[in-house]
Amino acid sequence: MTLHPVAVAAATGCSNSVLENEHRYTNLLEMLGFLKDRHRKRLKARPFPNEWLKIIKARVAFFVRLAAADQAELLDHIQVFLAEKNFEGCAGQEITDEVRVTIGAQACLLLLHRKTNYFPRLLTILVYPSTYLADEQRPITADIWEEGKASRLGETARMMGSMVLAWDAVKSGAADPADGKNVVLHEFAHQLDYENSASDGTPALATREQQLSWREVMRTEFASLRAAEETGIPTLLDTYGATNAAEFFAVSTEAFFERPVMLRAQHPRLYAELRNYFRQDPVEFSAERVKGG
Ligand SMILES: [Zn+2]
User: Fold this and answer.
1) How close is the Cα of 151 to the center of ligand 1, in Å?
2) How far apart are the CA of 246 and the centre of ligand 1, in A?
3) Distance CA 86, CA 106 (A)
């Protein structure tokens, strides 16, 4: 258990020194925040490497469809992201600029137009050449679980400090911006979910009003995806999103950026919540192919 300094002060009667320490601690955090912001400003001011831009144009299909101001903002974010995150290759995967930039460009799409602290819980990105096998426990009934290997494209967790991605899935996600599947957007949506107190599919929202509206819409939409999964009705959203509220947010984020026209038509309230949170309207730059559209 951690006691708040003020509670300790009340209990021990040494309020002055404790409050002073707390004051110093707050000043130190402000100072560190100031230094971090200054360093990030410097990173953004650097010229963007031409080689990196070539990689983005060749690999990341949504980039050329963004408005010029958004392209510039994205490149700024990529400079900070790549300076702050470590990459490690696994199972023989080499970490090249192509790997780092292709991942960074997609991850940073989630940061446009908002004040951001660049996925603060994430330190290291582990990259496998392709789908990898992980130990998994699957429920058979409520009490019986089977253990086995499951193939995965990516994963991350709140306390892990890391993320795992399969390079072939990263590449195919970047190459087709409208098939509804993007492992980078999915895993980094989980990281946004970790920015506030719980991993519950609700990222940090600005106001109480926004939180209430988000909860109500997500609860309804999640329930209808669960019902569709049980009855086998085809859905725009991947039914993996019916696993829990956190997966629902990650799957919805993929659909928001990759199938925005259909999402807006079929789930207008869900689309509106995501548009308010991300402060983006992907219909404006989508490459989505809509029948009859
Ligand atoms: Zn997930």
Assistant:
1) 13
2) 7
3) 16
